[in-house]
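In keeping with the milestone schedule agreed at the kick-off meeting, the structural modelling team has produced records for the first pair of proteins. Each record is given below as a sequence line and a structure-token line. The laboratory manager (R.T.) confirmed that both were archived under the project's standard naming scheme.
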Amino acid sequence: MQYKPLPIGIDNFEKLITRGYYFIDKTLLIQELLDKKGDVNLFTRPRRFGKTLNMSMLQYFFEDARDDKGEKQDNTALFDGLAIMQTGEKFLSHMGQYPVINLTLKGGKQPDYELAYILLRRQIAYEYKRHMFILKGDILEADRERYYSIMTEKADREAYVDSLQFLSRCLERYYGKKAVILIDEYDVPLENAYMRGFYPEMIDFIRSLFESSLKTNSSLEFAVITGCLRISKESIFTGMNNLKIISILSKQYGEYFGFTDAEVQRLCTDYGMPQKYDTFKEWYNGYLFGDANVYNPWSVIQLMDDLREDPDWIPRAYWANTSSNIIVRKLIELADEDTKTEIEELIEGKTIEKPIHEDITYDEIYKTMDNLWNFMFFTGYFRKVGERVDERTKQVYAELTIPNEEVRYIFRTKVLGWFDEKVKARDRSALFTALVDLDVETVEEEIVDMLLETISFNDAKESFYHGFLAGILSGMKGYIVKSNREGGSGRSHLFVKPVTRRKPAYVLEFKVADKFHQLDEKADEALFQIEDRGYARELVDDGYATVYRYGIAFCWKDCVVKLDQNLPLTTEK
């Protein structure tokens, strides 16, 4: 059977439709926008949830498109068979009726302000070029010269501050209609500027651009803006009483960003894989936008594309490298004991409660842990499962949990890995020395101290502690750490082998206790297993004259370390 190609990375509506890609119909977003009649609408959603594609769809629906000569182009065919075409003349009368300015600010993600400004200026100039046919119309000579200088990127910096207002005024004069302004990913240059150290310059430019085009613009019909985070009005949307913010907490527009359950079921059926529906649900479902439960569309499409090639394909965390990991990593760097405990609880499937602050700025994110939690919530790392209002302060508190296996995987790997890097960056020489000197008490103390700096979880298995200890023992000068090598009749956890065979080698076996009082018993069990299965024999056979054996038992963030009290295994034994 011939299936439609899946739109991997396709965010242009016209390309998606004309080239026959699979499309999940979100055109009723248009109807709701027209019904609500918002003047300036800001949609905040996580990365890769379909914002750019929806903005492209809005452009092709509303725009009175013209070619280079000013001849009208009809985009009606792009919407044939889609839901918006069944809504009636009240809504269809708006199709192809407005000049549209569609500006993306993604290009502002650059290493310094000057380059970021040049790229943003270039995006504005592109919109001027796209509409340059209006220069053939009735336009004042002074406006023509100003238009041309902006289009060719020869205007001074001040000219670009109100360039969108000027362009919409020129378009209104040509069309006789006010302009629709679409601004995609408005906060990308702001986040990048904060991380790169030129936030004040960038926020000044964006604030001025928005104030002129969205607040004091008599040639504006309406505007739609998208981003990940709601930046406070005081920092960028100063005095904009016409701003309607639709965040993930809003009850409106919930189903238009991301895939609904019914849409994912239909996708599975359309590609002949209804049996895979539960996998999609387990891995990518669980986001709550208003009252709408949605799936991560980026990951759903990616997995279906892989399943078409290999029906046994194992799900991946496709979203892991597309989100704002830099700021999430900062959470790890600043984490105190309470924060680490909360992360552990989240990984276990429990919930945490946090105050919700929708109005924050990027330069405030690191000021408090609550701001960081809020950033993670609004950028897709958590699902709200409940809320309450403090009667005294009127502060809203949200009960948060990890939404699905994809995000849980990110926590178990990336977040856990970042904690491990933090531990490995500390001085571990005391542990290395104690291990070689058979100083069991110090080995135990050092391991517990490092466990307190990382995160674990109640369902942690031997493999977790195995990976943890292998990591902190790596880097011992003059020693090689080997994991899970065959030895005797089983598999030992770690060998610590000196480069020279004149020095002793070490076998470490791990056990996990369910209760604290079982630690001694489990450590003895680990030592018995080393002896019973002959784990040390491989090292003796490899030429090491002496082999010491450690049994280590873990319970949560405690451990007991024991050394075999019998003679070390030697070539003479």
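The second protein of the pair:
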Amino acid sequence: MTDYSAPTRDMSFVIRELLDFDSIAALPGFEEVDGDVVEAILEEAGKFSGEVLGPLNRSGDLEGAVWENKSVRAAKGFAEAYQQFVEGGWNGVAASPEYGGMGLPEVVATATQEMWQASNMSYSLCPMLTQGAVEALSHHGSEELKAIYLEKMVTGEWTGAMDLTEPQAGSDLSAVRTKAVPQGDGTYRLFGQKIFITWGDHDMADNIIHLVLARTPDAPEGVKGISLFLVPKFLVNEDGSLGARNDMHCASIEHKLGIHASPTCTMVFGDEDGAIGYLVGEEGKGLANMFTMMNEARHKVGVQGLAIAERAYQQAVAYAKERVQGRAVGQQGAERLSIIHHPDVRRMLMGMKAQIEAMRALCYVAGAAMDVARRHADEGQRRAAQARVDLLIPVVKGWCTELGVEIASTGIQVHGGMGFVEETGAAQHLRDARITPIYEGTNGIQANDLVGRKLLRDGGSAMNALLEEMDAVISELQGAETDALREALTTGVAALRRASDFILSKGGEDPLQAVANSFNYLMLSGYVIGGWLMARAALKAEQALADGAGDEAFYRAKLATARFYATQILPKADGYAAAVVAGADPVMALDIEQF
């Protein structure tokens, strides 16, 4: 397995050139943030990811997490790396300085998340979930709970976990049966079992703070009866020190296809008197409150798709440059060359590179929209930005993870037979990537969310606003370098409009027409939004070259990957649109007995 090297120049391009970073830095609370700060963060995070986390990726995969005596031991080196991570302040990049965070924009934190996930996905799931728990507690926790728990979670001294799923429930959280019995003193005692709890137990931190969905005894059936509870592994004394072990434990960990060093736990609450928990927000509002954490996590899972694709790409490029096989096309008897000289290998590498650039732009644009939604002084601007975030999150999660799997698979193909051999490490990237379209809501759920909650519910307002921005970019594509982009993006935007109009016209009366092909609509959205962002990147590169900004090879490469995306990737949009407007009949044509 090759070493990981953070693509900081590409990251900086998206943050500082593609995005309007000056407007982000001008948001309230970011007065101390400028381009130099961004560059320093990217450089130092790149070093940490490459020098500390990256070397543990392969060894962690081979060793895995270990369960014994109802507890989990992290793979060798992980605990030490985690302590360095905490000491460096990396756990709270975007968190409030009030609680020990750096207070940097979410878009900058997104770049660091890409580095952590690319260098070591198994490890990085732990701080990723902690940050989601921080987000939920910040928004919905009482002042008392925040005073006790938030700072230690922001700094990473304590980690967080998200406990939703149960054996009988799966993604249907309305079927949750874990009980929370009120004690009359503001506390509850929890009884039940949760499955698939990522980093639900480990030995890397002194305490683990679980956010658990459960029902009070008199709660109604369905989602309205679900509440959210904070349940610490160790209770906390009045002076802030750790007290007794709570009545909860890890009953087992799963043996998985990938992310072997990330323990996926079955957590049991209440073997004896019940695990003590504290209500977060109001009773019956648990699922809504948990969505704060879930949206944060879904964005970061999309970043995982980007990250694992980048890692697979780096390894594929390194192998293609060193693996000597065959001669150049049309050259008989010539010297044998490395496989990167072969057109089909170049096609694969260009496809990987171009799509990664589109994915990175999408993930970072969503992060920047989060910053505006949280901090802009104007309420209207905040609402518009939140509508954009809500629209983009299922696309980030769904499209980027689907591409992450595809690109990791392409990385194996570049290696040929050696990619199918575990020793090269290429297979690990595909194994690790495969979970991302599944957890934090399968991509089918993301697709239904996109068409149901994000398109139909607002009558297409958020999507139409985005399409209008795409039209504006098309009008700017006037140069010879961007001819292919203008033509392809025009076709792609038309395809997305056609599919959106179909769902809006048919889906309200017949929901089946919306959801039967919602996955195709999600993928269509991803490819077209990616094309829009690649066009914006090409315009920035074109302007930089015209201005003589230097780094000519870098900007020429941006134009080349944008052109490749336009001619080789974006044409997929028409196919997805055709599937959407074909309606539900082809999907539902067979009776169940015919399968």
